[in-house]
Amino acid sequence: MKKKDNLEDDDDNFSDVSDELDDHDYVFTTLVNEDFVTTLQVWIYEEDEHNWVIHHDLPMNNLGLCLEHIALPSFANCCAVGTFSPEIEIWDIETPDVVEPLVVLAEESTTKSKKKKEVEGRATLSLSWNKTYTQFLASGCEDSTAKIWDVTRPDAGPVCVLNHHEDKVQVVQWNNFDSSVANVLMTAGFDGSLHLVDPRNDNDTLQFITEKGVAIEAAQWNNQDPNTFACISESGIVYAFDARNASKTLFKFKAHAAGGDLKFMDKYTKRNIFATVDEGSVKFWNFKDCLNNTNTKTIATHFHEISIDCKLFTMGIYDALIAASGQTSEIFVAKILDNDIFNQ
Helix, strand or coil for residue 326? Predict the structure, then answer.
């Protein structure tokens, strides 16, 4: 993979970049934490050149931990950012020179006072926007709760607080691949449990156990079969489940030495593929092959791998592109679906 050198320091990198984002641009956002300062960076991928440049960056008010692309009324391109404080900041990413978020979501006590004792242990660790009921944003929190927010009512506080975890909630995921079950929220956390819950009836939850006390690092719904989902634990083990049968694990195998991120590929690929990252590599797995391997008692193996000289924490997949980042401030981008192996 090719990357321009010294993107942050060379003004020439910005000379051919339009001030306005185009509908056809491949845009991705990242959070960079350096010297206790967070910057929200907006990047553009230039497909013809296989090159990526920073379009603009936005200085954050708080240290950022997670982000999620969302839309607000009159603002189609926004990012929600979870921070070390209980506040969630929503930024307009189309405007280069903004210095304040459009909206700040906070509980009533934190909007009136930011005393240290009020914000300790209440960082936001994960975010998920509901693409069907677009006013709702879910957050997973350090205080062992998951919260539902109405982004059109930022001063109202959370509309729902879920208390079914025993430790930090590191994953929240709406089922955005099937509008008929878009009200179902997946949550997972440091307690090694994963829950499916309809916030309208938060007493009725389905619980799935991986390893008790072993944190779940990432989880996602299967976009080709929205009844199923997969997760990866901090010990690098991948688990898959079916929402219709909480008592059964579809498959389980060791993917990495330690946990990282997990994402399913976009829907138009012929194969039902998911990717995992950690320890300097992105591995690609066929969901159906993993099911078959479990049935025949053989070990699941990945069919493709990209090696990167960096410990990876997270990735994003859109159309033919995968972007990954980790310990350093570098972004690694690959155009993967040109490879015939993904559509065999």
Answer: strand
Q: How far apart are CA 233 and CA 190, in angstroms?
A: 9
Residue 298 DSSP symbol = P
Q: For 310-343, b where at least 16 C-beta lie within 10 A, e where not — what string?
A: eebbbbbbeebbbbbbbeeeebbbbebbeeeebe
How high is the pLDDT of residue 128? 97
Q: 5: number of CA atoms within 13 Å, CB side? A: 0
Which residues have C-beta within 8 Å of that of residue 297, sequence separation ≥ 6? Answer: none
For 5, list phi and psi in degrees, rounded to 5: -80, 145
Tokens of 178: 């099937």
Give the pLDDT confidence of 77-132 residue by residue, as tens digits.
Answer: 899 999 998 899 999 998 888 889 999 999 865 544 444 444 556 899 999 999 99
Question: Would you state the structure tokens that stand for residue 286, as one six-digit string?
Answer: 């066929």
Residue 145, number of CB atoms within 10 A of its CB: 20
11-209 — its CATH code? 2.130.10.10
Coil, helix or strand for 20? Answer: coil
Q: Which residues pair with 299 in a beta bridge?
A: none
d(CA 120, CA 270): 47
SS3 (DSSP) at 294: helix
Whole-angstrom Cα distance, residue 283 to residue 261? 11
d(CA 137, CA 121): 21
Quote the mean pLDDT of the chain.
Answer: 83
pTM, entire model? 0.86
Nearest CA among 310, 225, 204 for reference residue 274: 225
| Residue 120 near residue 139, CB atoms below 8 Å | no
Instruction: Report the DSSP beta bridge partners of residue 276.
Output: 262, 283
- Compute the residue count for the chain: 344
